Structures are given as structure tokens and as C-alpha cells.
Amino acid sequence: MKKLSFFLIVVSNALFSCSKDDAVVSTATVSAIACSSVSFSASANAGVVYSATATVPYAGGNGVAYGAGSSISSTGVTGLTATLQAGTLTTGTGNLNYIISGTPAATGTANFTVSFGGQSCSISLPVSAAVVLPAVYNKIYGASSVTTDGTWVIIKSTGLPDHKSVYYATSNPLYENFSGTTFGGNTFAKNPNTIAAFNYTFKIPLHPVAAATHATTPMGPMGVAINGVPLFNQYAAGGAALSGEIVSFDQGYGHPQQQGGYHYHVEPIKLTAIKGADALLGFLLDGFPVYGPMENGSLATGLDVYHGHTSVTADYPAGIYHYHFSAAAPYLNGNGFWGTAGTVTY
Questions:
Q1: Nearest to 82 by CA among 41, 118, 129
Q2: 205 near 340, Cβ under 8 Å?
Q3: CA distance 59 to 96
Q4: Residue 48: its pLDDT value, please?
Q5: Are strands 320-324 and 308-311 parallel, antiparallel or unpaired?
Q6: Residue 283 in contact with residue 290, Cβ under 8 Å?
Q7: Which residues contact 152 (CB under 8 A, 6 or more apart)?
Q8: From edge to edge, which strands make up the β-sheet containing 343-345?
Q9: pLDDT of res. 132
Q10: If 0-12 CB within 10 Å is exposed, 13-18 middle and 19+ buried, where does residue 238 land?
């Protein structure tokens, strides 16, 4: 009987020890979290919708996986929440990621008290005054939205032209048949494509500056017109000469590519007919504005190899570098961007 009791005690202790060890390794723990060293993927402005990642370093991780946390409301500046994202601790040092989202109610500091792995600290997010979008961007009337985060101007558009085109489906109210002469005196020859909507997001610098190295423009959208239609460079698909595609420009001097993305390579005459041949017609991805072919009552002159120059315009009385459309190649842009280009997604 004594031997049996001893055996049961030994087995019981062994099971207790295994259960205890399993509980330890299944719980994520750290020895420290450093909220003072937090970094944010974007800056925050009062009254502007915010969504970014806060990266918080930790030390003494035990290599255990952990789930997503509950949302933590901000104090100080209210209107934001922080939510821990699921992950796996490294053994030693690493980072915790919190998604911070919402709309900060005021300027100041938004604070989040976070607890993880037996440690706590406070994340502090500075909230700056809202950046006012310069009035010139209100001229982009065809965008679904135009906003700024203080660094970029974000322009969202479907890319659909607001004027009539033979490339719209015949059931569309903006469909209009077209034949005869198009850009450059060429006889129009319709391509087989039909206009389709896209979800374009153009991010251009709010404060554009000249680049030290002038990058070539991409195939595809290199800018956006004020009616939300993408601007393309002087080349056809695959980098071929544009001469083979010019015949397919419609009554607005644009056309759709194979996926239905309508765009302009040359002066959008439906816009200049309404706004004027010297008017602001759009922006390239580097943030510099695009104007029609005229300036001060005559054709723009003194254009550099990028097809632009610096001078006073109606929208920029202090002067700014800007591009001009022209009737001859390269039509809008020459050897590349004057500034550093932003991005476009669609």
C-alpha cells in the first residue's frame, strides 16, 4: 500500500508539473514594452480621418503566439482607438503593432494605455492642426474626392470623361457617334475598346519641388486632368510611337485602352473649349500643374526638355514650374518629370 501511494504521488506531481509548464509556454510574456520609442506610419491631423500603424518595441519576448486585442479608446485627444494586431513574439526583442483609427477631435496628444504580457505603458500620438487644401485643387471638379494629409494631395476618380464620346456604350447618355477628322487632321478610326470605370487614387506632392534626378514618366497614368481623366505620356502601348494610335482619338481627343481606361495623350479639347486654352487642365504625378497650349495670349514658348517652364500663372501668382500641352510631340511631357513623382493605384 505504501508503494502504491508513493507511485500515485509521483504521478500526480508529474502531471501537475506538465500542466504548469504548458500553462507558462502558452501565455505571451515580455519583460518590457517601450511606448516611448513608438513609431507611427502616418501623422495625424485634427478633424481628418486617420488610419495608421503604431509600432511599439518590446524586450524579453518568449516566442509565443498571441491574438488580436480589444480596441482601446484614446484619452486627451478623443475620437481614436488602438487595436493590437495578432502575431507571434520573437524570443527576445521585437515589435507589437497597433492599428490606430478614427477621427481626432482636436489638436494635442492622443494617449492610449496599453497592457501586454504583464507590462503596461502609454502610447502618445501627436495630433496637429488640420491642413487646409489649397483652393487650386478645387478646380479638379471630376474627382470623387480631393483631400490632403499635409504631405500628399490624394485625388480619387473613376476616370470617366464628362463629355460625349463614341467609346461609351451606346446605351450611355454620353454616347455620341463620331467620324471624320481627329487630332492632327487624321481621319478617325475607332479602336475596339469601350470606356469603363476604375478606382483611381492619385497621390501627388502637396509642395512639389524640382528633383535632383528626373525620372522618366511611366506607361499608363502619369497625371490627372481636372475632370478626373488620367493623363498619359507621348508613347503608345509598349513604348511605340503615338502616331499609330492618334487616329483613334475621339471627339474629345482621348481614347480607352484595352481594359477600358479612358485617357488623354494630347490636349483635351473638350476641356479647353470650356475652360480656355490657357487654363489649368490638371496635374502630373510630381505635383506640378498642367496648362493648355496658350500663355499670355499666345502659344507657350521657352519650354524645356521636360515640356515645361517656370512663370507666373493665374493660379500661382508667385510663379511655379508647370507643363503645357502642345500640338506637336511630345504633346505634354518630354524627357521625364520635373519633380519627384507620387503614386497612382487603380
A1: 41
A2: yes
A3: 11
A4: 86
A5: antiparallel
A6: yes
A7: 203, 204, 205, 206, 342
A8: 145-148, 152-157, 200-205, 343-345
A9: 87
A10: exposed
Q: Work out the number of other CB atoms within 10 angstroms of the CB of residue 66.
A: 18
Which amino acid, 176?
E
Question: What pLDDT does residue 3 have?
Answer: 44
pLDDT for the residue numbered 19: 38
- Domain boundaries defined on the chain: 32-128, 135-345
Strand 44-45 to 119-128 pairing: parallel
In this prediction, the residues of the chain whose per-residue pLDDT falls under 70 are 1-25
Question: Which among 187, 199, 179, 330 has a CA at the least distance from the CA of 261?
Answer: 199
In 182-329 the beta strands, taken as DSSP E runs, fall at 200-205, 223-225, 230-231, 254-256, 262-264, 280-284, 289-291, 294-295, 298-299, 308-311, 320-324
Q: What CA–CA distance (Å, rounded) separates 71 from 80?
A: 10
Claim: this prediction has a pTM higher than 0.85: no
Name the residue among 229, 210, 321 with its Cα closest to residue 282. 229
Give the N- to C-terminal CA distance of the chain in Å, as an integer.
79
CA distance 150 to 285: 16
* Residue 25: per-residue pLDDT: 53
Amino acid occupying residue 325: F
CA distance 267 to 337: 18
Q: In the structure grid, which three cell numbers stand for residue 38, read together?
A: 513608438
Which triple of cell numbers denotes residue 60?
Answer: 524579453
Beta bridge partners of 98: 54, 84
Please give the single-letter amino acid code of residue 60.
Answer: G
CA distances from 124 to 48, 153, 239 (A): 18, 26, 49
What CATH architecture is 32-128?
A: Sandwich (2.60)
The C-alpha torsion from 181 through 183 and 189 to 190, rounded to 10°, is -120
3-class DSSP assignment, residue 17 = helix
DSSP 8-state symbol, 200: E
Q: Indicate if the alpha-carbon torsion angle 313, 281, 328, 285 is positive or negative.
A: positive
